[in-house]
Amino acid sequence: MNVPKRHKSITAVTVFAVTLFFGCESNFKEVQKINFSEFVPAGETDDANIRYTDSGRITGILKGKKMLDYSSLDFPFTEYPKGIDVTLYDKKQKRTFITSNYAVSYKNTGIIDLQGKVKIRTEAGQMLETEQLYFDQKNEWFYTERKFKLTDAKGISNGQGIDFSKDFKVINSQRISGEIEAEE
Q: Residues 56, 62: contact at Cβ < 8 Å?
């Protein structure tokens, strides 16, 4: 059988290209493995119970069913995938209670991101409920742009966007509605 030269050339080029493709794919996968770094926690804790102190005085207690420590990363953080239960103490030992279904604490910024059925309440009976709330540890300040429900002795208000001090003494809220007792 006489096969034209042109057909032989196309067949040879096709065989060479297929061989080159499969040979490079194998090397490409090896290169990917070399550059792959696993995103795994440096530490993992079940039933965490952490106490924060300042000059021998307890300032906070954090409890979490699961804690994942990513402190070995360039931007270190601690993750609480099963939520947290926090008690904060002021200088007069008055308590503020915080719960959420999920939390992330960023070491470099001191910001804690609370997510999923976030509730914060004081011993005085004030309570805020929202789906996401940030806490600036350095300034002891909470804030969110999400919808919220605030309950206190004056009434119940709903809104979107609020920031406040950890003791609820200073509250700045936006787009609010509800019935609030006004001081005269």
A: no
Could you read off the pLDDT of 113-130 as tens digits, one per residue?
Answer: 999 999 999 898 899 999
Q: What are phi and psi of 183, to 5 degrees?
A: -80, 140
Asked if residue 127 lies in contact with residue 94, where contact means CB atoms within 8 angstroms, the answer is no
According to DSSP, the β-strands at 95-100 and 127-136 are unpaired
Backbone phi, then psi, for 38, in 5-degree steps?
A: -75, 140
Measure the CA–CA gap between 99 and 96, rounded to whole angstroms: 10
pTM over cut 0.90: no
Listed in order, strand segments (DSSP E) in the chain are 43-54, 57-70, 77-80, 84-89, 95-100, 102-106, 111-122, 127-136, 141-152, 155-165, 171-173, 177-180
Q: Is the pLDDT of residue 89 over 60?
A: yes
Angle at 89 between CA 87 and CA 93, to 5 degrees: 130
More confident site: 3 or 54? 54
